[in-house]
Amino acid sequence: MAESTVSKRKSWGEAVAVYFEPRQLIILIMGFASGLPLLLTLSTLSYWLTKSGIDRTTIGLFAFAGTPYTFKFLWAPFIDQAPLPLLTRLLGRRKGWLFPIQLLLAGAIFALGVTDPAIDPQLTALVVLAVAFMSASQDIVIDAYRIEILDAEEQGAGAATTQVGYRIGLLLAGAGAIALSDFASWTAVFGVLALAILACALFTLFIPEPKVNRPPLANDYAAWIEAAAVRPFLEFAQRRGWVVILLFVLLYKFGDAYGGLMANPFYVDLGFSGVEIAAITKIYGILATVVGGLFGGIVVVRIGLFRTLMIGGVLQAVSNLLFSVLAMRGHDLLWLGIAITGDNLAGGVASAAFVGYLSSLCNRAFTATQYALLTSFMSFGRTAMSSTSGWLSDHLDWATFWAATSAMAIPGLILLVWLMRLYPDEKHMAGKP
User: Fold this and answer.
1) Confidence check: pLDDT of 280 > 80
2) Which of 56, 112, 262, 356 has the CA that lies 20 to 30 A from 231?
3) Nearest Cα to 144, choosing from 70, 214, 194, 90?
4) So where are the chain's domains?
5) Residues near 393 by beta carbon (within 8 Å), at least 6 away in sequence
6) Fold of 12-422
7) Angle CA(90)–CA(78)–CA(35) in degrees, nearest 5?
């Protein structure tokens, strides 16, 4: 079973060297494939809807289209354990699922660009739901692949590499989509994004399949359901403080996600153009997040997961206050850059540590199912719980709104202190050895 990735401290040189392992390149590409469609159901979608004249309350309600990220644990056991005819035999357990899912995801993204939210918002919402479902299914496989192909001591660096690829995907789906929309139709924009996912599907055909010793599947249907769908949850429920763990996963990045959903409407209200938003909040912001993520992965190795989570969580809360200042200053490119720098550096550190923590919690016998459970709780905060962000921003001025999102980080930090006491040495978080 996996233990903490930081049970043995390494030098700065050793921590940096792990990024040059060939497996990290694979993780980088998979992070890209994971990040690109997620942003389509979040900030890029909200920008598209804003430019189409949709009101902010409705934009907030569109967050419900991302509910597959919240409930993906329901079908994760099937993807985790069930073979696909022919594809599993030819490609392996993980690749056999990932390849067809990515093909369907590319088709759903292209279909989204054909809809018009101003004319038929219900149809747009349904297609967004399809994109989110295929994206969540892709994440189930990608997360399991990452955890299984990396050694325990590489999980922290793998989390950082994932975040780098993830942010590159956000760069294309965010800055690329927003900037391109100033000069081309949204159909063309989504067509480009669909081609990017199709390229990832072709890449999947050439990567190695993880070598994991799994128990054989039961022939009896009831026994198969028990092994695939029940046992992973029962095993997790035997952990010390498992309820606290789930609450922490739900709340750690809640304030960040709550504000993020309204970020693009905020920028538009302040009078920033699409090119300005793309250049500063997306392109430059992604670079700041990459730096923060890589540094966060190194810090995890040096001082541990929990301490890095605490540093990242505090920085996330403080950085949201920079947007309150921006709201008071109005259309100010310098302050936009300052706010984006602070927010994305903090988010990069926090995300690298958070993904590493979630990975360390997974028993490798149930990798996909348990990771899906954890990220589903995280997604609930990003989708359903964040759906009121549009309503709140309509009833508060922007400065107060961002201050409120900063305060939303406090419960997660309190739970983190609790977990640090439950697991003082960060060992056996994936269960008893």
Assistant:
1) yes
2) 356
3) 214
4) 12-422
5) 56, 262, 265, 266, 401
6) Growth Hormone; Chain: A; (1.20.1250)
7) 80
For the ranges 148-162, 213-227, 292-306, 374-388, the lowest mean pLDDT is seen at: 213-227
User: Between vectors from CA 272 to CA 266 and to CA 273, what angle results, nearest 5°?
Assistant: 125
Report the 3 state secondary structure along 229-258: HHHHHHHHHCCCCHHHHHHHHHHCCHHHHH
Burial degree of 209 (CB within 10 A; 0-12, 13-18, 19+) = middle
The tokens for 386 are 């964040």
Q: Are 138 and 102 in contact (CB under 8 A)?
A: yes
Distances (CA, A) of 201 to 172, 175, 205, 368: 17, 23, 7, 19
Q: What is the pLDDT of residues 62-100, one digit of tens each?
A: 777 778 887 888 888 888 888 888 898 899 889 999 999
Longest pairwise C-alpha distance within the chain: 66
Cα–Cα separations (whole angstroms), residue 258 to 228, 240, 315, 379: 33, 29, 16, 11
- Phi and psi based region of residue 86 (left: phi greater than 0; alpha: psi -120 to 50; beta: remaining): left
What proportion of the chain, given as a percentage, has pLDDT over 90? 33
Our measurement of the distance from residue 4's CA atom to the centroid of its chain's CA atoms, rounded to an integer in Å, reads: 21
Q: How far apart (Å, rounded) are the C-alpha atoms in residues 319 and 405?
A: 10
Average pLDDT value for the chain: 84
Q: Which two tokens stand for residue 69?
A: 């990220």
* Residues 389, 405: Cα–Cα separation, whole Å: 9
CA distance 30 to 204: 9
Residue 121's identity, in one-letter code, is P
